[in-house]
Amino acid sequence: MSIEPEAPKPDASESRWPIPPLGGWTADDLDRLPNLPPHTELIDGSLVFVSPQTLFHSRAVSFFEWQLQSLAPSDWEVVRELTIDIDPQNRPEPDVMVVDSEEVRDETQTRFPAESVLLTVEVVSTESMSRDRETKPAKYARVKIPHYWRVENQDGRAVVYAFELEPATGVYVCTGIFHDRMKVSVPFPVDLDLTAITPRRGAADQR
User: Fold this and answer.
1) CA gap 191, 135 in Å, rounded
2) How far apart are alpha carbons 201 and 203 in whole angstroms?
3) DSSP state of 62
4) Residue range 142-159: average pLDDT?
């Protein structure tokens, strides 16, 4: 009689999707799981993988990192793409955040306690729109992070939505929508030329 060929056994070296344990992953798992893609977040016990960055996203993140670093008071540190400990099931990763400099320990650090964070900045991409507009700001507000900025690409230009935590209600309220220039006094004085994020084509030829 004929014998059915055996199905090939999977190569142990092949990468596989991690299977979540009962109850979901925890914040500590994020540092222990092998071969996770860069910038993996933990949202409600689930791993969230990000899509490849666009040029707008890369430029905006670099812009806010360097601009805020030059303007922040000395007792605050600006970091990019590290996670926040919200609770055991949530370690979101803002694109940029301003943290208490006393919480910056060494070069191996991957996370910061929520109470050390002054400001989070999220640059919206197509796949992160719901998380950046709804899920993540709700979690940031719950742990009382005072300020949240959302950066969006509207027809090739950067628009920033600034939010401040309203202490009586514990939710964010919008304090401004900024198109070409962002000038605010909190959490510290900032005056930014947002057109520098996405320079118009041909601008270099007009210098």
Assistant:
1) 28
2) 5
3) H
4) 97
In whole angstroms, give the CA distance from residue 38 to residue 35.
Answer: 9
Question: How far apart, in Å, are the Cα atoms of 62 and each of 13, 97, 119?
Answer: 35, 12, 16
pLDDT of residue 48: 84
Tell whether the model's pLDDT for residue 166 goes beyond 50: yes
Q: Where are the alpha helices (DSSP H) in 72-201?
A: 129-130, 136-142
Which of 151, 68, 153 is closest to 117 using CA atoms? 68
What pLDDT digit, counting tens, does each position of 63-107 carry?
Answer: 999 999 999 999 999 999 999 999 999 999 999 999 999 999 999
- 159, with CB counted inside 10 A (0-12, 13-18, 19+), is middle
Q: Which residues contact 110 (CB under 8 A, 6 or more apart)?
A: 30, 31, 82, 83
For residues 65 and 67, give the distance between their C-alpha atoms in angstroms, rounded to a whole number: 6
* pLDDT score for 102: 97
